[in-house]
């Protein structure tokens, strides 16, 4: 019977969390009416109530509807706190969309304005911390209003109750400090403390426990299992490990990109997860610089430059979904996410630079050799020149035109690739160059080099046909095969690198298109912040970092 009830409660919580995530207000209200605690029902492992979650997700209309389910003569119910000591007003303070809901809460329970969480922060401080101007102005106005009202009430009370002016005292005693007969009662602060302690007793402090199945599946990269868990038990997205890290922290650290993309597509949960930090003060942006040291087999075969490029793209992607505060936030070691990324990728950047230089130097040697051969071939045309006129003897042959064009293109392409490779070698190798510039140049250089080799072999094949052509078709087929065999070997030896560069180029084009078209994944994503000047940072910024 107990198991049946537990299973039923889990299903109810799952349906409720899914309805909140999907924005199904009608279903949320319907389920709340059937719950004993109504909208104050604890829904997550952090003891967040339904009202907390709705406020975090910025569902202003839903919060107002849920508040109507709570009797107005029970304001103490609105002072409910979660595990972190945050009230409902704290939850609404992180958005400018829930000002109306905050106003209704304060109308019913004015003491919410003075209540603090475990960090000693009020809702007013929290709104300022997250840069929510409208909410801050409203709460500040309410604070001043309450101060004024409290002063008026105190003055009225003194006027009505104080009879000290009726008593006559010796002049010598008029300057003596006397306790007011109404000064010994409970103050508002004491009442707040008592109410805070009362609700604080309802909070369950979770001890360190083993990782949940969701986080274990995330670390292992089991995307299907993660999706199934979130489908059956959507509130599991709130789970954290012993370091205080949630699913986004883990997915970014372990480079589980499929899981990362699936979570950021969950619009409402993302609005809350992106601002959370772990026990060491690390945001999800810090996790980009804290990847695990043991790389999988796929990452081992990739070049250091491509690994660094992927990390830079991930940093940019995570930065877009982070709040402005998270991009500037320092962890417990006093390090920002950007500084941590640069610090932990110093060796990778050195390896990437060496790999890039080595690759470009080898390709440059090939390009120079091809240009030398192509240049010499122009003066040693097949069949030789006419001794009297100097014109080639075979100039009227169809394949001579093929030879001339192929040789000219081979020389042009090879010299072009040499110029491109030289531009890479003379690059400053800034950190941001590894994200786009260097890879685009390398892709273009390899493409032109492959075309140069191909044109040279076409010229070689045309020369063979012109000089030792045969009427037998099979002879010509053998000649063509022999001619293009080196091209095939060259292409096959570089196919893996070329595929990775093509993939990188496609991602670059996709990002450009995404910047032009509206972003559907994240509502009003924060623009990438300008790096802090190097003079103010202990670590050089991306754009100024050079080896």
TrEMBL record:
A Pfam family the protein falls into: Ank_2
InterPro entries: Ankyrin_rpt, Ankyrin_rpt-contain_sf, PGG_dom
Keywords carried by this UniProt record: Membrane, Transmembrane, Transmembrane helix
GO cellular component: membrane
Composition bias, Polar residues: 526-547
Record keyword Transmembrane present: yes
All copies of domain PGG, residue ranges: 353-466
Region (Disordered): 524-547
Regions that span the bilayer: 359-379, 399-422, 442-466, 478-501
Protein name as catalogued: Ankyrin repeat-containing protein
Source organism: Cynara cardunculus var. scolymus
């Amino acid at each position: 019977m107990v198991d049946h009830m537990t299973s039923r409660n889990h299903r109810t919580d799952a349906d409720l969390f899914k309805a909140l995530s999907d924005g199904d207000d009608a279903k949320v209200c319907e389920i709340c009416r059937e719950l004993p605690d109504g909208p104050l029902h604890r829904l997550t492992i952090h003891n967040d109530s339904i009202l907390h979650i709705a406020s975090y997700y910025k569902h202003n209309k839903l919060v107002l509807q849920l508040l109507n389910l709570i009797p107005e003569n029970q304001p103490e119910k609105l002072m409910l706190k979660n595990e972190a000591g945050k009230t409902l007003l704290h939850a609404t303070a992180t958005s400018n969309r829930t000002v109306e809901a905050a106003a209704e809460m304060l109308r019913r329970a004015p003491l919410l304005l003075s209540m603090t969480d475990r960090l000693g922060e009020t809702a007013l401080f929290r709104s300022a911390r997250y840069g929510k101007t409208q909410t801050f102005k409203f709460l500040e106005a309410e604070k001043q209003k309450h101060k004024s009202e409290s002063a008026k009430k105190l003055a009225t009370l003194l006027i009505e109750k104080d009879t000290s002016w009726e008593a006559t005292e010796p002049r010598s005693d008029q300057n003596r400090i006397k306790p007011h007969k109404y000064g010994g009662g409970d103050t508002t602060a004491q009442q707040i403390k008592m109410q805070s302690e009362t609700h604080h007793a309802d909070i369950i402090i979770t001890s360190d426990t083993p990782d949940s199945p969701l986080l274990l599946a995330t670390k292992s990269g089991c995307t299907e299992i993660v999706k199934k868990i979130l489908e059956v038990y959507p509130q599991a997205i709130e789970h954290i490990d012993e370091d205080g890290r949630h699913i986004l922290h883990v997915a970014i650290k372990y480079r589980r990109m499929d899981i990362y993309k699936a979570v950021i597509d969950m619009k409402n949960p993302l609005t809350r997860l992106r601002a959370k930090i772990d026990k060491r003060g690390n945001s999800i942006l810090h996790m980009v610089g804290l990847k695990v040291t043991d790389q999988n087999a796929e990452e081992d075969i990739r070049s250091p430059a491509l690994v660094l490029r992927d990390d830079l793209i991930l940093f940019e992607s995570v930065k877009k979904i982070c709040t402005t505060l998270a991009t500037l936030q320092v962890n417990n070691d006093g390090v920002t996410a950007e500084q941590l990324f640069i610090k932990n990728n110093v060796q990778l950047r050195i390896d990437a630079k060496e790999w890039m230089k080595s690759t470009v130097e080898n390709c440059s040697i090939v390009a120079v050799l091809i240009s030398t051969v192509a240049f010499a071939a122009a003066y040693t045309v097949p069949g030789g020149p006419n001794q009297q006129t100097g014109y080639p003897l075979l100039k009227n042959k169809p394949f001579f035109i093929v030879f001339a064009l192929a040789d000219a293109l081979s020389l042009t392409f090879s010299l072009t690739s040499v110029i491109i490779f030289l531009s890479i070698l003379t690059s400053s190798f800034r950190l941001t160059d590894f994200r786009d510039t260097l890879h685009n140049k390398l892709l273009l250089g390899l493409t032109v080099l492959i075309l140069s080799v191909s044109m040279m072999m076409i010229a070689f094949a045309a020369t063979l046909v012109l000089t030792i052509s045969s009427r037998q078709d099979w002879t010509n087929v053998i000649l063509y095969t022999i001619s293009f065999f080196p091209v095939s070997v060259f292409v096959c030896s570089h196919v893996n690198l070329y595929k990775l560069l093509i993939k990188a180029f496609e991602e670059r084009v996709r990002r450009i298109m995404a910047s032009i078209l509206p972003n559907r994944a994240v509502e009003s994503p924060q623009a990438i912040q300008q790096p802090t000047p190097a003079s103010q940072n202990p670590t050089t910024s991306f754009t100024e970092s050079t080896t």
